[in-house]
Amino acid sequence: MKVRFLGAARTVTGSCYLLETEQYRFAVDCGLHQGNQEIDARNWDLSLYTPAELDFMLVTHAHIDHTGLLPRLVKLGFSGPVYATEPTCGLMEIMLQDSAHIQEMEAQWRNRKRLRHGGKQREPLYARQDAEAVFPLLRPQAYNEMFEPVPGLRVNFKDAGHILGSSFIEIWVDSEAQRTKLVFSGDLGRPNQLIVREPSIVETADYLFMESTYGDRNHKDEDTSREELAEAIGYSYGHGEKVIIPAFAVERTQEIIYTLYLLHKEGKLPPDMPVYVDSPLATKATEVFRRNPEFFDRTTRELLENGEDPFGLPQLTFTQSTEESKALNTLSGPAVVISASGMANAGRIKHHLRHNLWRRGASVVFVGFQAKGTTGRKIVDGAETVRIFGEEVAVSARVYTINGFSAHAGQQQILDWLGHFRTNGMQVFLVHGEYQAQQTLAELIEGQYGLRVAIPDYLEEITLHPGGESECDTSLQQRLPQVDWDWLIQQAQTQLDELHSRQTQLARHPMEEQWEIRDRLQEITSQLTKLISGLANT
User: In Å, what is the CA distance from 170 to each residue of 20, 178, 182, 210, 458?
Assistant: First the structure.
């Protein structure tokens, strides 16, 4: 069997693992790549996925970094069944439609810009009809009920405790030699998370593909995280400003609402401070949650049985229209605004940051992982300004990073879950994590459990042999674009030399034109200074 890593390899987005046996080709997850321009380009060329030749798809959970390329895959010829749990199927329907809407809106915005500069229009990555074409392919499956998508291959979904309906996947592959078992963790949840149940336990595997998002650090406990959120609220309430919370529309938004409900019960949420969920997707997702209480943990079910509503607050408003969303940015006084996306790289949250990030007294609360290259990561890393809608916006608001709300297991929680495996000679492949965190976790796994650990890179392909042996092929990585730094830096130097040679000519221009050229040159110089400063800090 071969496994090709088409995403979430030394990074945390674009999860997709293509598996090939002698008879079948299928994939585990098919997520959207999110980050800088080069990473985004991976979404457009799916030739390595060969969509029309895929027999079926297994999906761990509904988050867009695990499902967001399915509409494009279908657009390019995939027509096989897509297996996932019932809540995942329900959430995918609303999330993929929302993702398609975002793709269409961003394509319109970019096309207007291209046309103004004489360029050509470009189609969106996919449209709503492409998202809707996925829905007839969905095949809901129950937890802990083994099924056989094709002869000789058995699959079982187990609760991963990450979001509603999330799963890790057990796969048994029968060959003439022997049976091989693979486990894909998907996104492994943290214990004691609100709403969802604890991650299930599994004890056997020949090969484990395990997430490592927080492989280099642990989370704060739930009580500490709730107190930090209360602190952010108190700070901005006292200054008459807003608390802006970038949050994924599924699970993270619902957990924040739940947490605000608990703060309300504890008297730590000012009763006159309105709370807005500014995400139509989050509104629809919350309704999916309400329809699936049987998947909640015991504590949440007991609240519901006692007549309490953990998703309800006296001051809570779900906004729907664009006009309602825009009105929040002209609203005076303190408020809590929860909006997507969680990494602040798309959607309505960008508007709220543009209007509030520069305000002293405002708070920005990050409650999930921020991938490299995203606006959220730049803010968390201490950027003094960030570019939003082509404008440099100062970061003057107080920034809070509260990873205790993360739906991902922390370092020790990952190790504890791994400790239940009892298979001698099991090999671990660390996926869905940044390389530095993965190296830290790999050393701990090797030291504590004596297991072999590999950290695959993007486009790496491994061949799995019966008995736990594997071999690696990196030839596909030669397709990755390389950066010619010598040429780039020489080009910049050539342009600077040319500008210097025209200094006398510049001085002959009308003063108004000189000021404009000066301002543009100062902006370029400022960007170079930031670039060099960033290199010095790495």
Answer: 16, 16, 6, 12, 23
Q: At what angle do helices 280-291 and 252-265 cross, to 10 degrees?
A: 80
Nearest alpha carbon to residue 84 among 158, 183, 1, 3: 158
| Residue 441 near residue 411, CB atoms below 8 Å | yes
Burial label, 372 (beta-carbon count in 10 A; 0-12, 13-18, 19+): middle
Residue 484: left (phi > 0), alpha (psi -120 to 50), or beta?
Answer: beta
* Type of residue found at 247: A
Angle at 509 between CA 503 and CA 511, to 5 degrees: 110
Residue 332 CA: distances (Å) to CA of 63, 233, 273, 398, 525: 34, 16, 11, 19, 37
Per residue in 32-83, pLDDT (tens digit) is 998 778 888 899 999 999 999 999 999 999 999 999 999 999 999 999 999 9
The SS3 assignment for 37 reads helix
The angle subtended at Cα 416 by Cα 410 and Cα 418, nearest 5°, is 100
Token pair, residue 538, equals 């790495």
- pLDDT tops 80 at residue 482: no
State pTM to two decimals.
0.84
Tokens of 375: 């606006």
Count of CB atoms within 10 A of residue 462's CB?
A: 20
Give 204's contacts (C-beta < 8 A, 6+ positions apart): 181, 421, 422, 423
